[in-house]
Amino acid sequence: MAEPLKPRPAVEKMAPYSPPTAGRAGKLRLDFNENTVGCSPAVVRFLVEKLTQEQLTIYPEYEATRAALARYFGQSELRFAITNGTDEAIQVLVNTYVDDGDEVLIFHPSYAMYRFYSEVAGAAVRELAYRESDLSFPLEEVTGAVSERTRAILISNPNNPTGTAIGLDAVETVLKAAPRAAVLIDEAYFEFFGVTALDLIDAYPNLFVSRTFSKAFGMAAMRVGCLFSQEANVQYMRKAQSPYSVNMLAALAVRAAVEDAAYVNDYVANALAARELIYEGFRRRGIRFYTSQANFVLFHAGEKSSAVRDGLRERGVLVRDRSYEIPGTVRVTAGTPEQAARFFEALDEVWK
Ligand SMILES: Cc1ncc(COP(=O)(O)O)c(C=O)c1O
Description:
Elements (H helix, E strand, L loop, with lengths): L8 H5 L14 E2 L11 H10 L2 H5 L5 H11 L6 E4 L1 H13 L5 E6 L3 H9 L3 E6 L9 H7 L4 E7 L11 H10 L4 E5 L3 H4 L13 E6 L12 E4 L2 H9 L8 H12 L1 H25 L10 E5 L4 H10 L2 E2 L1 E2 L7 E5 L3 H14 L2
Parallel strand pairs: 1-10, 3-4, 3-5, 5-6, 6-7
Antiparallel strand pairs: 2-8, 7-8, 9-12, 11-12
The structure holds pyridoxal-5'-phosphate.
């Protein structure tokens, strides 16, 4: 057999990342922070009843989607790019601003794709840890860590998997400390948190904010997100983005989704009520956990974290073991109060 073709060194060095996404259908999915009920039925109805042959035949046209999203977010159409999920937002930002060897500042633990796209681009990844005691954001360390070489700072707010968040004053501190770096505030869990950096965009040319339809909106399979920044930045990012990266089904689906905001608000209210029940359930059982600003809770299962995950899976309940990042921790998604009750029923059987 001939030798395989050698990839770029940046790719050769990367550790493979393959989240456990197989075999999840039909189970209670409390493992990926998705909407645990499903997207608005209006979205499915729209696709089933209104989709035309022509819409699938021609290359996607985004004008109507762009207008609907601009209305929904209260932002000018020139202020955002529609992306194939947050993932493409991260990729486009990195490809636009980070060169081979440039430094990207990320945090640990956080969303895996920040490291992924930075490494693919050949960036030098520098990582700062969330504070061990309460998993709060290491704000003071950021100001010390920023240098001339820092070209991007990627922050999940609220952060996955810790659930902790920073306020806008801290966001501004980072923006001021790194005026030459593209600062991404990834607001994938905004709907559960309610604080957004979108209104700071006018004041900071180095601010980028991403949103997604994968979480509260229940459309992870569709792969749609938005990346906001000042108009000049968005123009550059659109140059670095494929012109058809969001497929037409997704572009149509988000139009239907933003018209049914009530559905999402209702789901968020349920998830927040479930989160309270999860706190209460952990307290009652003496299980240590971190309070969260998102639709998931990280808790300590100690040495039995993988046994808890496996035992729950056998009972049809999926959670995510995060021990590889913070020893002994497991993350559970807050869906509905009924689902939280089902989670504890199964947990009581496996927690020995
Ligand atoms: C912080 C954060 N950003 C983004 C995403 C996923 O984004 P998308 O599905 O929009 O690519 C996740 C999903 O787990 C996440 O935790």
